[in-house]
Batch of 3 targets.
Target 1
Amino acid sequence: MEQSFLAWLRGRVRNLPAASVGVGIGDDAAIIDVPVGQQLVATTDTIIDQVDFVFGQHAAVDIGFKAMAINLSDVAAMGGVATSALVTLSLPSTKATETAAAIYEGILEAAQKYGVAIAGGDLSVYDGPLSISITMLGTVPVGAAWLRSGAIEGDVLIVSGPVGGSLLGRHLRPHPRLDLVSRLREAVTVHAAIDISDGFSLDLDRLCAASGVGVAIDTERLPIHADAVARAEATGRKPLEHALGDGEDFELILAMSVDDWEKIQSQAETWGLVRIGKFIGRTGLWSTGEKGLQRMLASGFIHGQKRDSGLNAIGLGNAPH
Amino acid sequence: MEQSFLAWLRGRVRNLPAASVGVGIGDDAAIIDVPVGQQLVATTDTIIDQVDFVFGQHAAVDIGFKAMAINLSDVAAMGGVATSALVTLSLPSTKATETAAAIYEGILEAAQKYGVAIAGGDLSVYDGPLSISITMLGTVPVGAAWLRSGAIEGDVLIVSGPVGGSLLGRHLRPHPRLDLVSRLREAVTVHAAIDISDGFSLDLDRLCAASGVGVAIDTERLPIHADAVARAEATGRKPLEHALGDGEDFELILAMSVDDWEKIQSQAETWGLVRIGKFIGRTGLWSTGEKGLQRMLASGFIHGQKRDSGLNAIGLGNAPH
């Protein structure tokens, strides 16, 4: 790597918000403040060329942005505020500096947009595919993280926006729903949350399994993204199938009490929230309709099994197996 | 990856100390306590087959141990206490599960030995070389991290143990000097610290540059490791050259006042500490001897330049450039 690149990077990083970072790049480790009354949120996710994206086909700036956004989404799913990131790039030796700079454009764009400092990281040049590994750090009020395991029978099921068809391009530019965290914390108690990375029904199933409850989904209310409709035209499947099974929407699935939902109902639409069902004592996913409860199977990306795209990443910190 | 591997891993991880981890593997992110009066220490370092080690030649358990140890050493160099790690493995598809299990044996051994929880991570299978990326988290008392920049003129220069020749095998089984942190914090005020990853003289030069001071080294007092002597026999260079220039010792270089040094002098030897010089106003590295101050050049692994082994990793968070 050229020294000029590192000088450029350090200059760019200095311009980011860094209120919580006491010591950033340039020492053996970063020193970060966690205010009294807060706990640390920490998550890490890696994306790799030919596994999670296709370098050349997907723009480097988008790949960098996505690497940040998927980690920011995990912080949002915990009800956290993201403060700083550690960024590790493993770069193919051909045009390593150009690649690093282009990827960093997207990383810095996301950092600026979501108010996150780059507190440190690592750069390697190697004989392998481009890989971007980010550790995102943040804070949550002590004891008030939104876990997957907190949904209870009677809670309403909420999704934070339309889902499906992200593969048409949205998956590269996700909008992690950090905006919802302060809004919801001010108004209600979220019982449980998860972000939709592997598919609405699969991630909902994980939340149910962690909480020991089931869920009755009014599938007619599920907000289907226009991209899911467009995808359905290409695949011959139903838009609803894409909405239920496609991954990388990065919207949140939320559980809260009926009373809390009624408190925020007037603003909920503005925030993108839609009530689409309720959590029930009987385990499993169920659709509600004219015929009564019908069993649904979770569909989506099953960890550890290759699917068409060759995806084969397992989020150790991000998903129960 | 096989589900049985993940089940095994989660069982093993549960047996580790995890006092500070509120939520570990299995949610969107980990939740970690940072006690009142403490700041977070965060560092990340990646090691890659053919860049930092040679898979097949070096045992997988050692590689896993080393990946943890180099990060633990960075926490020690900040005067921190390590609490938890996020572990990311990128695995070649051939025998991915066996490789992951063998690497994790070393990771878990280090976690057990140094009292660190595995709070999360990521696993990918890809068409590339084995890569292990670890983010280590810990705590330091607020405002009391041992920075590189705190050495002042008149401070004594201390090294925590013999250096040189780690390539003979020690580099795979480093002993991060976390043991020194509580001992020194109880007795003295450390002004500055750095761990020796790229070579004694090079890392000392970095500390001096960050502190805006120079250093006069009594090279005859520098503790030379027996491995440096052995290496010198093979290379024809002097043992002192290996002690000054070889990397991956993972001992600490420390700066403190003369008064503080005298306070701990009686125990210092037991802890491995040796006083080998003093920090001076005149910048640069200088050796003291019969001829008076002689200019020394920092030698060691210069980041971003390939050396014989093909090493080409740049610690963004761990080293100034």
Target 2
Amino acid sequence: MLIVMKPTATQSEIDRVLEVIDTLGFRPHPMPGASRTAIGITGNQGAVDRAHFENLPGVADAIRVTKPYKLVSKDLRPERSVVKVGSSVIGGEELAMIAGPCAVESPDQVFEVAEVVAKSGAKFFRGGAFKPRTSPYAFQGTGEEGLKILAEVRDQFGLNIVTEAMDEYGVDLVEKYGDCIQIGARNMQNFSLLKYAGKASKPVLLKRGLSATLDEFLLAAEYVMAEGNYDVILCERGIRSFGSHARNMLDLSIVPALHKITHLPVIVDPSHGTGRNYMVDPMARAAVAVGADGLIIEVHPCPEEALCDGAQALLPNQYLELYSQVAAIRKVVQPEAETVSV
Amino acid sequence: MLIVMKPTATQSEIDRVLEVIDTLGFRPHPMPGASRTAIGITGNQGAVDRAHFENLPGVADAIRVTKPYKLVSKDLRPERSVVKVGSSVIGGEELAMIAGPCAVESPDQVFEVAEVVAKSGAKFFRGGAFKPRTSPYAFQGTGEEGLKILAEVRDQFGLNIVTEAMDEYGVDLVEKYGDCIQIGARNMQNFSLLKYAGKASKPVLLKRGLSATLDEFLLAAEYVMAEGNYDVILCERGIRSFGSHARNMLDLSIVPALHKITHLPVIVDPSHGTGRNYMVDPMARAAVAVGADGLIIEVHPCPEEALCDGAQALLPNQYLELYSQVAAIRKVVQPEAETVSV
Amino acid sequence: MLIVMKPTATQSEIDRVLEVIDTLGFRPHPMPGASRTAIGITGNQGAVDRAHFENLPGVADAIRVTKPYKLVSKDLRPERSVVKVGSSVIGGEELAMIAGPCAVESPDQVFEVAEVVAKSGAKFFRGGAFKPRTSPYAFQGTGEEGLKILAEVRDQFGLNIVTEAMDEYGVDLVEKYGDCIQIGARNMQNFSLLKYAGKASKPVLLKRGLSATLDEFLLAAEYVMAEGNYDVILCERGIRSFGSHARNMLDLSIVPALHKITHLPVIVDPSHGTGRNYMVDPMARAAVAVGADGLIIEVHPCPEEALCDGAQALLPNQYLELYSQVAAIRKVVQPEAETVSV
Amino acid sequence: MLIVMKPTATQSEIDRVLEVIDTLGFRPHPMPGASRTAIGITGNQGAVDRAHFENLPGVADAIRVTKPYKLVSKDLRPERSVVKVGSSVIGGEELAMIAGPCAVESPDQVFEVAEVVAKSGAKFFRGGAFKPRTSPYAFQGTGEEGLKILAEVRDQFGLNIVTEAMDEYGVDLVEKYGDCIQIGARNMQNFSLLKYAGKASKPVLLKRGLSATLDEFLLAAEYVMAEGNYDVILCERGIRSFGSHARNMLDLSIVPALHKITHLPVIVDPSHGTGRNYMVDPMARAAVAVGADGLIIEVHPCPEEALCDGAQALLPNQYLELYSQVAAIRKVVQPEAETVSV
């Protein structure tokens, strides 16, 4: 059930609706929009009786939602969301560029890349301190030490830190040291982790699972939002397919498909999405052309020495060239809908 | 690196090798076999020098392993493993039948099914107390209350309990109430959970992820074993494909492929693997014919009222009919290799 | 539209219905069944008025068909079809075994295999004279010479010949020399070829395309039948997926799915379906256990010298061992529905 | 084997090499490039002895080719090919725009669209007279009558005609009435058709099959070229995947992958590649951004009345808007390599 308030509704009318929802034993999710506030209701087992709300002052409509998701939906919030991440935003007019090494290896490696990223004009820095690796014998990340290095990058370069958490312990640490909690593709349906991140105070960057449908992807975001954390950014990073010309199949068609249904920002990771250095640039251009709100790009000063995923990392100068190309394309592509700050 | 001891090696010769491995800062994984003991070495970053071991008394060979996995491999243990689960085993001559409802809903529902399962001669009972659901608004399971009901089933019917854990809290509870910790398909690459289960004292039933390759599947098992828990059972439960005639694509060819590489038992879940009631019986027959070591079958007294996955559950009498058919096929199919108890 | 005649309908009543369909400018497809005749109508652009038929003598019902297929459907013919192929049948009580080399290479190679196949009790011999090869530089088959060798196999061993046609020229030659026209997976949606085969006088063995859905597969069969050739045998031979442990993903779940919808016989090709010698035996057992009406198995006296697909061919003694195993499983699996000869 | 001539080689030196190849019983494929001529050799069963060529006058090198394809490869021709189609080219500096209705339905419908397409500045007109339809009961095209309408479009608007052939009869007719023979995705491995088109005098536009790997796609093109028709244009049009948000999964990563290996032009069909009207525009932008040499776009004056694929057709004004957007992106994206006319 979705309660849509009138544009003229007062705060006390909104509070009255929240109170009624609470009294019924359900959970209210108020979402203030540009012109009016909508309130999602979750926690109900069956259908909720519209009669509880229709005649309350300030209520414009009580809509039954038949789709499996509510909070991610444009029904709840027709304007695109702009998510605040540290000192900047993702989902606004400016293309969000998140760049950095796959893994935090050493202060030197990180600072060398951070300097390039800051100089390029990007606002976000990525780097993994906890690495989900297919093999238990592969490099597993530098942990809290790595997060401390990332925190220094923020202090020194003013870059906002996006970094992955693999479990509750990781979420706590990323909240402490970083600006955005990344949840990786392999954990997209780790529902315990999603719920925990839903209680965190930092935004969540949720990567699409390798075989996730659009509905499953949105419902994973719904898990986070249903716990009260509405700051979710969706990220396409390639799906599994039969081909071998790229490591994964980057599914750019999901960008317009998501923008049609959800108000959440959608970004693209062409580095993991292709796994091939030479494809990152053309696929980054395509991602911006298709309307993505941002990009995540792996940059490494010395890809052949990288402790993970070196084959897809760009050299600093390749990254700068990429950024200038996508910026030119961004100017051509007008974002399709008005966006409004949360 | 794999150290293969001579058949005549004494326990003190084995202990000496373990000590050397420890001294080098690595981790030894002794695996006693029918005729000889093999010792896997993990924790090394680069190659281990064979010279450390070749001349120790009782050592037959020191083999460099180039495959990504070690402990799951038949190189380490040529005989098939028979995993003890509660009072019975999986991987032995007898087909392991694990049956029960998808979710634990109420004592009545559970006991009604348990009676049928016990009567059929099956040794294992399944039922989820924690349910990984695609939507946050779907029934999430009855939690610890459900586990207590399952524990009663064991006491009353002598059935060994296989039930899913979704996080560390769940692993602790399943260790307390159940006999086998199931890790679901969506958590197959939840590496933090795999490591935690690797420290548990109960065997782990690991389901293949929906887009997991054979190597990824084996490496997930390797994560559990690398922590010291060698009692792992692999389970094929359907992968994602383009078709819509079944909910998932049950990949039976992975059974002989796994048996060729790993000593671990391999079972099949035709209920989740097809998602269609009418397909469970023929695909269960096929799974046994292809050489699976066991089956997991969903049974519900009243599928149309099931709180989850009713469309694939069998009625008790359908289940009994299935069991008699697969038992007849099992008699025809001779397990391909000798098996030996751990 | 489907006209179902009464069990008591006379031939002249049936003829009258055929005449009316013809007069309306449509095409009638009479399908005599065990207890009654059904007549499919094709060639209509929109809906056909039931009033034309309802009151004709001998008509039991005129059913509007909303499914995309008609002639393949059990609505038209509830009993399973038994297709006559040369001197034997496919779809009957006996498991149909079709065995032979991938390609016809030389008389010696062919006769050596044919002797084994005949001795095993199989009724059908396979062997390609026209080979669809991914590369234009690979061996393309021995053409008409090869077909003449196959015709000699029939004369000498009494085996019925199943062999592939890739174009109209090939269909004509297979009609001349063989007993069953195989249409390969890559040509499953070569609609011109399907239509041409639909006018042939020999039965058609239609292989599922590598990415064909169940509906697309059935509609390809419908193309053949709509031209008047009702003797179609469906063959699952593996689909494309992301895994690499087998060359293709053999989808056994399509066997019960097809049997639920269509009256046509369904066989399985575990040789192409896995592409791995060691998997052919277990997957053949599984195919019979799941209810397939037959198998196609590649046998070669010297697989490592085969001009194509040697990696999946069985040695003669492996083939004989396989046959004895699947025969034992066939005895256990009772065909699920009564079958009736056409 | 690939014979690379010196830049200074004379025509008589080239002719001498061709003669030697012929004498050896092989087939020569001379490919004149910007700076030098290369000659591919096909028809050899095993390896060709380099000694035959190394010392001939004018020969720079004789290279053994280990890849499965030769004529499509950049080894043979390092510069990108520019294919002449009627009065214009595909693969050159200008983005090739091919637009028109899915099917030729009537003169009025075709001329209405043709006028818009001509006005937009596009040089190519598409429209199917033979339609490969999944169901035998769906509209199968207007045949030769449709081709005559398309020929009139060329006469009246100066547009070059791209239209599909499904069999040899169709190839003959398209050669007569059209400018480019399209081979559809379902026929990508109809090798008899590929060979026949390889003998035609008009260029071939080859669409990628729904489950074709990059190698299979290139080898299909190689089939056409091996017969002597070197004017092949490759077209990505979506592959089969598990998702349902689009009808197919448009694989844009194959564009840079193909450009890395082959000299042939690569275009993209976002209409069939998505099957959704609202996705055509963003995916067309992405295709141009990724570096495609052209686009095929379906335009229909009245999509909801279209006899096929209406859901994906653009209205004329949507098409014009799309064209202006992709033209702006094309200006930003510099083609990565120099191109040279054949």
Target 3
Amino acid sequence: MMTRESLNGQRIGFVGLGNMGAPMARHLSAAGASMLVWNRSPGPRRTAESQGMKAVETLPELAAAIGPGVICLNLTTTDVVESVVFGKSGLFEKIDHNAMIIDFGTTSVPSTKSFAQRMTWVDAPVSGGQVGAEAATLSIMAGGSESAFQRALPILCTVGKRVTHLGPSGSGQVTKLANQLIVAQTIDAVAQALRLAELSGVDPAAARQAMLGGFADSRILDLHGDRMVRRDFVAGGRAEWQLKDVRLIVEQAAAVGLRSPTLDNSLDQWEELVVTRSCGDLDHSGLFTLYE
Amino acid sequence: MMTRESLNGQRIGFVGLGNMGAPMARHLSAAGASMLVWNRSPGPRRTAESQGMKAVETLPELAAAIGPGVICLNLTTTDVVESVVFGKSGLFEKIDHNAMIIDFGTTSVPSTKSFAQRMTWVDAPVSGGQVGAEAATLSIMAGGSESAFQRALPILCTVGKRVTHLGPSGSGQVTKLANQLIVAQTIDAVAQALRLAELSGVDPAAARQAMLGGFADSRILDLHGDRMVRRDFVAGGRAEWQLKDVRLIVEQAAAVGLRSPTLDNSLDQWEELVVTRSCGDLDHSGLFTLYE
């Protein structure tokens, strides 16, 4: 574990100040980094400025100011990552050839491998949700060369608690997909379990309490189970992003020859929620509504 | 939490000294109870005797010796419970009308309700596996009248750590089915995730470590994930008992009108492992082999 002092004076770029990115940038700033931030919409840029960070207007400006430093990304999809770094934004034209990208988002494995052939790139997707981002207790699954990983480590340790280097570029993304597969299917399991209890006349809140600490215990039962019991589906993590991840998982499974009827069913369930029922703006835990 | 002293001198019957029952009976004995035990096969009876418990030869003998006390059951299926208590064994004929049964097994909800109309009955299925039974840290999900639950409580607290009274007879079994639904589906999710990592070139042991502490964290990822990584499928909990539970879940879901394609798929997966591939004697975590 690195200490916060290790970022003193380091100039770090941060692109994407959403639910996850905003608190992560804040932690880097609090650890002494000199933050340069960019976000598509102006609201989060202004909030960052009010917290002592410098917001830039354009991505080439960000690239020029960072020089041979590190730019962190926390964006929504592979397409957005590609367009922000290599697209018409003009960032790639201005980036120093010694600069490094840390991609905290969930980005496709083949795209990550191809990005890493064009510049120094660490894939560092995170797990732990908004709660973990706020508390700087994220699990971080990193891929990239050993030297790039070591260079990223002080930043990774500032925003996360458990940082694992899993291998070359793309390895972090592979592990994040494995993680999301478990998350997507466990949310479904917890939803059915609590609904089964309720329909059978057992208070689902009491059932959840009884199951915590046994073999069914999980972070999902604890946090999302509580949301289901309270019918509180205001989005922390949106269901549409879960579907995006499940689609990436299905792609990756096909690419490596993993056949799974359970995974096919999981895709159907998330498509039913997000596409058929148009509930993509609900929290992940809103999958519960399929069983009502 | 009751203290162990509370069982001093109490005479308790225990029927079924398997992987779970044997350590539970031992904990009751260690807490000062005077244990009378019965098991179908003689091996576990002899082991219990070597640990200071009294083994009886027949079930009517057990019933007569216990009188208006408590008889605990830890048996494999609903049919076995019915046959041991109400069948030709002769136990029911000799049982005192003030005696009480505590059923620690996973028994069908409608059968539990009908047994509870014939005598004082607490359904108290457990979660936590053999590890939890050995350590007396089981989660116990109890159903029955308030007075019966209070009478059972010193025993429940001796073998478990988290004891929850969920409502009238059958409520414990409902909650155990909810628990087993989560267990059955989470094992499947963890199996796919670790295999996806492996086929994608990431060390599954490292992937498991990275995922612990994030949103995918669960008791199943921790314990069964480790078995999968080590390809150690020697049974703690047998896959055939998991299939038995999934069948009970499907029955209960149908009885209360819960429609779930995910549950249908889960039944298919466990039947594939246990019936089609004849691997019912593997540990639960052996579901991993479906993806090899």
